[in-house]
């Protein structure tokens, strides 16, 4: 098997002292940031992007691998011990996890989450190892029309299918596309929205956008709140953070079912793991009702196991979609795409040919990161929650300083600092009025791809618009997209009728 040979070579490159150290650093930073409400792995990666420019590409990507999965587990710690999930992807597992903690089973809830994250992530990454080359071969058949269809699929799916409000989702998409076209249009040399400022001729740096939107916007949003308390009410934990054989027998089917829900959603531009985690939670709850002794509402271990495995399985296969198609299916994947570009690598069908050694080393680093996280978090998970005791004024001041330092260090430009502040205020306004951030991020990153693909497709066909729907791949993408939009419309209508 070529995949196993390549993966063995990847482990040989990844298993060096320096790379293991960077994986550990990433796991610690990702978990620490993930614990804090409103933050997450996307912000951790965004903050570190400008600071890793001088690192070796493999070392930086190995660290990001630790952050990627560490942030997801950190999200769950705060939800289980405080009923305050660090991010929306941990809401489902927090519902029963917090009840387990209140019943004196916090160590078991944390262990269930840690092992579920490990199982879901490992299975998904194994699938990526075996099927990523096949996906890359399929992606080689993509031409300009197919890439345009893929970008449109991502735009509409994230803006309308996943967002609570289609109007707000489309508004965020429009904002992102507007920012994406700033600069000089390469084919024509036309200035677009530069206001005659030379610093905007090359467009707005994507690192500035991500740091401002994810970090600065969140800081301003938190600062605008009045009356919050710095005293976090943590549920004390005690006992061994391990599961008994009976608890493992209960959780194992839920871990596997949750993984089954999460794997396919990783390759769908759904904006994150919220959908599969709640689908897993709903499935476990439905199965629990049929049992002789229902546990949901009392602290069901299955209610933690399923969603946690689903979230990490989604993250694992999202990495496969990013590597093979160049398609970011979540906000964190979108920021990771920027990390690749920072080192002159373009995720997509040619990545395995041009940068095969680094790609396989990255996949090996994902396995290493999940093992490190399991070892790191099983015994000390409750300690991470102590970060919630840090006064918010000091915490967010530190984040602001790190964001400003990182953006300025990348290009030594005061204009970038002003842009960071302006886009940070925009991010604050979007949070205040419940405008989702993911559509804007995806639009900024995939906007140029969509534009250039559309131009190439039309130029190669003599401006015949039918070329955009002339291949089986484009037809399938548009049909699936229309079906998803129709399903979302029906779901919202039923929900509105039920509320009425």
From TrEMBL:
Domain DUF112: 20-441
Residues that span the membrane, as ranges: 20-49, 61-82, 109-132, 144-163, 169-188, 200-220, 318-340, 360-381, 393-423, 435-454, 466-490
Organism phylogeny: Bacteria, Bacillati, Actinomycetota, Actinomycetes, Micrococcales
Protein's name according to its UniProt entry: Tripartite tricarboxylate transporter TctA
Residue ranges of coiled coil: none
Keywords, in A-Z order: Membrane, Transmembrane, Transmembrane helix
InterPro entries in alphabetical order: DUF112_TM (IPR002823)
């Amino acid at each position: 098997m070529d995949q196993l040979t390549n993966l063995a070579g990847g482990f040989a490159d990844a298993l060096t002292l320096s790379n293991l150290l960077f994986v550990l650093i990433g796991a610690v930073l990702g978990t620490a940031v993930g614990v804090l409400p409103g933050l997450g792995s996307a912000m951790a990666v965004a903050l570190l992007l400008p600071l890793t420019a001088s690192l070796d590409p493999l070392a930086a990507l190995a660290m990001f691998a630790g952050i990627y999965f560490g942030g997801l587990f950190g999200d769950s710690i705060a939800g289980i011990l405080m009923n305050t999930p660090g991010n929306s992807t941990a809401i489902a597992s927090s519902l029963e996890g917090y009840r387990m903690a209140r019943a004196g089973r916090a160590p078991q809830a944390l262990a269930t989450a840690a092992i579920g994250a490990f199982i879901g992530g490992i299975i998904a990454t194994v699938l990526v190892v075996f099927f990523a080359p096949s996906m890359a071969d399929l992606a080689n058949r993509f031409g300009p029309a197919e890439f345009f269809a893929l970008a449109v699929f991502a735009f509409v799916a994230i803006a309308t299918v996943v967002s609570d409000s289609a109007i707000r989702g489309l508004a965020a998409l429009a904002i992102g596309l507007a920012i994406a076209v700033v600069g000089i249009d390469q084919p024509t040399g036309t200035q677009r929205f530069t206001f005659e400022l030379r610093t905007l001729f090359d467009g707005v740096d994507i690192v500035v956008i991500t740091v401002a939107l994810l970090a600065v916007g969140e800081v301003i949003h938190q600062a605008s709140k009045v009356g919050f308390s710095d005293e976090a009410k943590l549920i004390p934990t005690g006992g061994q953070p391990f599961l008994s054989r009976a608890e493992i027998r209960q959780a194992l089917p839920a871990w596997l079912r949750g993984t089954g829900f999460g794997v396919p959603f990783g390759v769908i531009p759904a904006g994150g793991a919220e959908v599969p985690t709640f689908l897993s939670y709903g499935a476990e709850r439905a199965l629990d009702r049929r049992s002789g002794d229902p546990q949901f509402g009392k602290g069901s271990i299955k209610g933690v196991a399923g969603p946690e495995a689903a979230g990490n399985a989604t993250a694992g296969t999202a990495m496969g979609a990013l590597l093979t198609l160049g398609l970011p299916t979540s906000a964190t994947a979108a920021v990771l795409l920027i990390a690749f570009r920072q080192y002159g690598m373009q995720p997509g069908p040619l990545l395995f040919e041009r940068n095969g050694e680094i790609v396989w080393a990255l996949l090996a680093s994902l396995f290493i990161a999940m093992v490190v996280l399991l070892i790191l978090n099983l015994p000390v998970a409750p300690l991470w929650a102590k970060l919630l005791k840090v006064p918010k004024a000091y915490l967010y001041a530190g984040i602001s300083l790190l964001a400003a330092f990182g953006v300025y260090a990348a290009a030594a430009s005061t204009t970038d600092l002003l842009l960071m502040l302006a886009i940070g205020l925009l991010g604050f306004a979007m949070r205040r009025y419940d405008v989702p951030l993911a559509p804007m991020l995806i639009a900024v990153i995939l906007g140029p791809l969509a534009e250039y693909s559309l131009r190439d497709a039309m130029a190669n066909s003599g401006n015949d618009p039918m070329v955009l729907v002339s291949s089986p791949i484009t037809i399938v993408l548009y049909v699936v997209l229309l079906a998803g939009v129709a399903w979302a419309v029906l779901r919202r209508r039923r929900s509105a009728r039920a509320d009425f």
